[in-house]
Specification:
38% helix; binds magnesium ion; 4-stranded antiparallel β-sheet; disordered C terminus; 18 strands; 6-stranded mixed β-sheet; 21% strand; binds adenosine-5'-triphosphate
């Protein structure tokens, strides 16, 4: 069903507002007692009869905003209003469709929906009727007695939608609803949701969609709120006045997709010059993008095969990766100085070129060199250099991460840190003891003869880093260690290929 674009974009009157957050910030207390700032100064309003999308990288707080608007979390700061009244409890006008479907596996399709209606307190005599209507609405007729395990991902999400719609919500929240559904099914489900929403005399009046997917938001939303991270904030709000029904292949649609790409690229990998540091000023530690070294090397090789450069959108299309994912990989490579990102291009730097042309051993060394330019790796390395046979507890390294990057998820950052360090054979990590230490390499060492003179050739393990001072019990204790490190455990990542 087509909707008049003009009608959707009429200016908002005061009484057009449904839900609003004003000056909202959110902090979470971490297990170590520190606060993690997730959102800062969010102002956002969802009006009657509109579809709003939140678009942003993983961890920028999209789901947190959704949970605040649904009344599932009270924000640390700021206010939430529903129909201009402060919201202090669950928002009764909202119903949520989850990414993970969240169905009860032991219940049939009908029972899953009926249970949701019961828990919302609908009278018993209305439950069957409402469930049946919702089942019809999403094209599940005939599947009432089916169990979730017998359904495809797309059909499961239809049940999720029916369950959310059965309570007749004024606003439908959808948190990455189609990311576990195949592309074609996702396309048709989006169109069906818009058809359901477009019936003016019925609920839902409005939809709040959370998504990573640029074409998805360009297809569905009237307003796209682009978010950035550290802490989550609004980068830009884009009005999308494309007439409905929208065509993914039309010129104007592609222009909208391009505009959103530009905004994200400009914000996530800006062309801004490096900040100039005053003498003695330490550079701030850099957040580590969540990506694996093998994937980063894959992109370097991809660029090498294209004369060292490619446009970022094209990389996403050709490698069939989500744009946000490509941004992460590019940011990681930029951090290691392997690529530059002038405008939309990703270009190999001299170090990047040196890396792709190098042998496996040389690659490991270059990787290590680049890592040691980063504050986090440098700091851990400095601690280990002082007592190279020491083993640092993971908790100590996590403390360093928290200190340097207070708004990052320290466990995730630690995981990335370990992957990157092991890939360059800079540090080793033992999962069992939760210790970080220098990897060992085997070197020739003459076997002492009974009389103390060397005899033949033996071998022993020594730290790969040169050391001038042998560790003492005192220095070892200060870094939480008791014994020399054992043999290097196998890295989870394959070593760089030749
Ligand atoms: N209850 C909580 N306690 C501590 N940290 C939390 C909590 N909920 C969320 N976070 C953190 O807040 C940040 C934002 O989380 P959120 O789930 O809102 O992000 P998102 O944008 O939805 O990410 P994704 O796209 O990966 O779903 C993350 O770093 C997350 O680890
Ligand atoms: Mg989320």
């Amino acid at each position: 069903m087509a909707v008049d674009a003009k009608e959707m974009t009429t200016p908002v009157q005061g009484d057009q507002k449904l839900i609003e957050v004003k000056n909202v910030s959110q902090e979470f207390k971490l297990p170590n007692g520190k606060e993690l700032k997730v959102l800062e100064n969010i102002d956002l309003c969802i009006n009657k009869r509109e579809v709003v999308a939140l678009l942003g990288p993983s961890g920028c707080g999209k789901s947190t905003i959704l949970r605040i608007l649904a009344g599932l979390i009270t924000p640390s700061k700021g206010n939430v209003f529903y129909h201009d009244q402060p919201l202090h409890d669950l928002n009764t006008g909202v119903s949520i469709v989850f990414q993970s479907f969240a169905l009860f596996p032991w219940m049939t399709v009908a029972e899953n929906i009926q249970t949701a209606l019961q828990s919302r307190g609908f009278p018993a005599n209305e439950i069957d009727d409402r469930a049946q209507k919702a089942i019809q609405m999403v094209g599940l007729a005939g599947f009432e007695e089916t169990y979730p395990r017998e359904l495809s991902g797309g059909m499961k999400q239809r049940v999720g939608m029916a369950r959310a719609l059965s309570v007749d919500p004024e606003i439908l929240f959808m948190d990455e609803p189609f990311s576990h559904v195949d592309a074609l099914t996702a396309e048709s489900l989006r169109a069906e949701v818009i058809d359901i929403w477009a019936a003016h005399d019925k609920n839902p009046s409005s939809i709040l969609l959370v998504s990573h997917d640029i074409p998805e938001v360009a297809y569905m939303a009237d307003r796209i709120v682009v978010l950035g991270t550290n802490p989550g904030h609004i980068v830009k709000v884009v009005e999308n006045k494309l007439p409905r029904p929208r065509d993914y292949r039309s010129q104007d649609f592609m222009k909208m997709v391009d505009l959103l790409h530009e905004i994200i690229t400009g914000h996530e990998i800006p062309d801004a010059p490096e900040p100039v540091l005053k003498p003695n000023e330490q550079p701030a530690a850099e957040p580590l993008p969540d990506t694996l070294p093998s994937i980063m090397v894959g992109l370097l090789e991809y660029l090498d095969a294209r004369e060292g450069k490619e446009e970022i959108f094209r990389i996403a299309t050709e490698t069939e990766r989500e744009f946000g994912e490509v941004i992460k990989i590019v940011k990681a490579l930029e951090l290691l100085d392997f690529v530059d990102t002038p405008k939309r291009m990703v270009v190999l730097t001299p170090d990047g070129q040196r890396f792709v042309k190098a042998t496996s051993q040389e690659r490991q060394n270059i990787w290590k060199e680049q890592l040691l330019k980063l504050r986090l790796f440098k700091q851990v390395n400095e601690m280990l250099t002082k007592h190279p046979r020491a083993r640092l507890g993971a908790d100590l390294v996590q403390e360093i991460i928290i200190f340097n990057l207070p708004s990052e998820n320290y466990e995730k950052t630690f995981e990335i840190f370990v992957h990157w360090a092991m890939f360059g054979n800079l540090f080793a990590y033992d999962e069992d003891t939760k210790k970080i230490f220098y990897p060992r390499k085997r070197v020739y060492k003459p076997k002492p003869k009974a009389n103390g003179k060397a005899e033949g050739v033996g071998d022993a393990t020594v730290p790969t880093q040169a050391t001038e001072t042998a560790p003492t019990a005192e220095t070892l204790d200060s870094v939480n260690t008791v014994e020399p490190a054992p043999e290097t455990p196998k890295p989870e990542e394959p070593t760089p290929k030749t």
